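Repro:
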Amino acid sequence: MALRVVRPGFDPERFFARLRRAARRILLLDYDGTLSPLRPERDQALPYPGVRETLEMLLAAGHSRVAIVTGRAVHDLLPLLGLDRPPEIWGCHGWEHLDAHGRYHPPRLDDGFRRILDQARLQLNGLPEAGERCEIKPASLAFHVRGLAPHVAESLLRQVEQRWAPLARHPGLQIRPFDGGVELRVSGRDKGSVVDDVVGAADPRTAAAYLGDDLTDEDAFRAIRGRGMGVLVRHRLRPTAAAVWIRPPRELLEFLARWHREATSAA
């Protein structure tokens, strides 16, 4: 398995040795771009071949806490996963939570934020394919430009940011870019918050890893540093706070298989 170290001094083999000895194991996984290829048609972004079977195996083994951490809403992700046993999911960058027992915990937002997000959606009226490209989430709006010619995408994103800029001045709101678009989000939660909640509250003898590809995953890579291993999953390397880099889908499946093998051998 090719694990390319991108943080000087990090030793992946030392991490896997810790994984074998760990009292608990936590595996946090981004979805789009990590477990599935990036697709312009968001409702067709199915997992890479072999990912469903591997997730089923990890969940059935019970040796690790497996959770998906995504910018998508929970209800949008479940049909794409297509798993017999839904995993734990942190949706909308940690604002909503489907726990391991299937209980759904919605975001707790002030009604004022919801009104501003509704207003932000109306601000997009008149933009090409605004209805199709605007994704409405429980705590944010995302505008997608994936699949467009670069100059068209750049122009659209500039217009969206200009229309949202006055709203983003409201305390508690922020505009954040992601791979293929831009998002107006309620601040206070991100993927790093999930790492803090899940890994920060764990036994110090826990072995934890976070796998992601996007700019939004950098919050999680920074949060897990010193607590576990951040794994950048991309075809091409970019500047990152992750410790190692792998390419999907083959190296992703190899990583997950090794995780299972090491955890099972320890058990």
